[in-house]
Amino acid sequence: MPVIRFVREQRDVECYPGENLREVALREGIELYGLKGRLGNCGGCGQCITCFVEVVEGGAANALTEQTAVEQLKLRRRPQSWRLACQALVQKSVMVLTRPQVGLADREGDLARARTQPLPEGPTAWPVPPDAEEPEAEDGTAPDPSATSDEGGVLPADGR
């Protein structure tokens, strides 16, 4: 699975491809919001612009989906590396810095440490569930799929 490396929190979190970055962070207890965002965030609609993250260089290219029209409008005066977590879907492993507008005491040191360990690439698709096993008839044979009851279920082996 793709891994999201949260630099400020020094945590790696696995997620499924296509999962929303904000939802993964909140599920894992990662703090995306400052005071303003905790008091009045939009719940992931891209309107309050309080769930900023910075995509750190060194991650996979195209690790997140393209910027949405909402992001392009809301982030037009922000650095190119910033994204709204609520609008970004994770496609590949990525390194992000939460709340980039808040200072980080040893920013360069923390970023250098985060870059020292390579990010696992992980699969780029959802896992395929195993095929459902066919139920066996009472006599140990597989039921005839063409023999169904009026309710659409499989008839017993004796046809009743």
From TrEMBL:
Keywords: 2Fe-2S, Iron, Iron-sulfur, Metal-binding
Residue ranges with Acidic residues bias: 131-141
2Fe-2S ferredoxin-type domain mapped to chain residues: 2-102
Pfam families assigned: Fer2
Residues in the signal sequence: none
Cofactor(s) annotated in UniProt: [2Fe-2S] cluster
Positions of region (Disordered): 105-160
CDD domains named among the record's database cross-references: fer2
Family: Belongs to the adrenodoxin/putidaredoxin family.
Name recorded for this polypeptide: 2Fe-2S iron-sulfur cluster-binding protein
